[in-house]
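Researcher: Let's try something more involved. This one mixes different molecule types, so please make sure each is placed in the same coordinate frame as the others.
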Amino acid sequence: ETGVTQTPRHLVMGMTNKKSLKCEQHLGHNAMYWYKQSAKKPLELMFVYSLEERVENNSVPSRFSPECPNSSHLFLHLHTLQPEDSALYLCASSQDYGGELYEQYFGPGTRLTVT
Amino acid sequence: AQKITQTQPGMFVQEKEAVTLDCTYDTSDPSYGLFWYKQPSSGEMIFLIYQGSYDQQNATEGRYSLNFQKARKSANLVISASQLGDSAMYFCAMREVAYSGAGSYQLTFGKGTKLSVIP
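Model: All components are placed in one shared frame. Result:
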């Protein structure tokens, strides 16, 4: 595997379900990200982890819970989602420590549908 | 105010012709970076090209070049010799160094331009 991989690629879940999205980066990067891409809206940064520690970001509802067990893996745990949470969820990674101008490399995304 | 503005929702270009995708940005940070990404229908965001605010020359990467006009705060992407595989969404993004916390990592994206290459 190369680059950034994400599983599953597609997910349909009910509002009472609990599911997790998985991301793995094979680039040796130290920072990982979750972005949300909704129809008609620009990409929104949800969470950032640098050196496996979460960088503070308070604007995401608590029904989304990230986890970063090591520098190569990132999870997004989902529970009691709403239909408006249906979107493409993109994982990204980069080699930087914040305040730098490095590009981020993205995975193929998980297309989430909440019914 | 929007930080990244892409005014062309959709563009058409003939195969083998050049095309320019527009991007204007808004920042008061003297140090920033501008990025272009391509997103095919498969969903993956593919990094194309980067321009730093202090770079004296316009960035180029193969068939991609960035027309950087700092005073006008524009960073247009030029694709030369368009190919059918260039059909995709194209996003302009900016990163600023002035912020702390999550903001110091954030890529701010525009709404994108859908490019269609006609055979």
